[in-house]
Amino acid sequence: MQDITFPSQLLEDAVEEFSQLPGIGKKTALRLVLSMLRQDKERVEAFSNAILRLRTEVQYCKVCHNISDVEVCDICSNPARDHSLICVVENVKDVMAVENTTLFKGVYHVLGGVISLPEGIVPGDLEIDSLVKRVEEEEVKEIIFALPATMDGDTTNFYIYRKLKGKDVKLSMLSRGVAKGDELEYTDEITLGHSIVNRTPVSFEV
């Protein structure tokens, strides 16, 4: 793509920052910045403050590691949720996807990724030990594996399965309504909901 000639260093700096976001190229970044220039100053200040507060004030739930405004997220602190049922997901977007189905009434455990040796992500980089600790210290009856239906997702499922094998907890996974290679955030709510309701026992051939 031909380089953009900027009439202002301030404009160029703003475009450069926007273009650092995933999926945002220089042309899209320029369009967004020019749009902001047309907004009222108060609106732009509100936008800037929201981003700054997000980065400086957001917390991660000390129980499930979901994004939260407080130490323990609304889901984990909700007595109406079934705390004996834990859905294990890769990231915060997956929590949002499952919640949007309105069919899951348990709680979550966010790993913060999946095991991927090519990318240098090993079990110690993820919240796996804290999941095992929850199973050992809380009255957990069932763990639902809701990780991506990919090789890395399956590897992570198997690793956790081995860590929990022999413990008094039921292990299940999403039914095949979620196709191989699919990520939860791109699965429609009806399909995902049915996959949770019709989950199947975990079975690994070793």
Structure description:
This protein is an alpha/beta fold and about 210 residues long. The chain folds into two domains: about 10-55, Helicase, Ruva Protein, domain 3, CATH 1.10.8; about 80-200, Dna Topoisomerase Vi A Subunit, Chain: A, domain 2. The protein has seven helices and seven strands, in the order H-H-H-E-E-E-H-E-H-E-H-E-H-E. It is elongated and about 65 Å long.
Key terms for this structure?
single chain; 206 residues; alpha/beta; Helicase, Ruva Protein, domain 3; Dna Topoisomerase Vi A Subunit, Chain: A, domain 2; five-stranded mixed beta sheet
User: Could you describe the largest sheet, including whether it forms a barrel?
Assistant: 5 strands, mixed
Beginning-to-end CA distance, first to last residue: 51 Å
Structural class: alpha/beta
Number of strands: 7
* H and E order: HHHEEEHEHEHEHE
Low-confidence stretches: none
Shape verdict:
elongated
What is the subunit organization of this protein?
Answer: single chain
Helix content: 25-40%
Which architecture of the largest domain does the CATH hierarchy give at level 2?
3-Layer(aba) Sandwich
Backbone CA Rg = 21 Å
What's the CATH class label of the largest domain?
Alpha Beta
Domain count, please report it. Answer: 2
What is the mean predicted local confidence, pLDDT?
A: 89
Number of helices: 7
User: For the largest beta sheet, what order do the strands appear in spatially?
Assistant: 4-3-5-6-7
Strand content: 5-15%
CATH topology of the largest domain: Dna Topoisomerase Vi A Subunit, Chain: A, domain 2
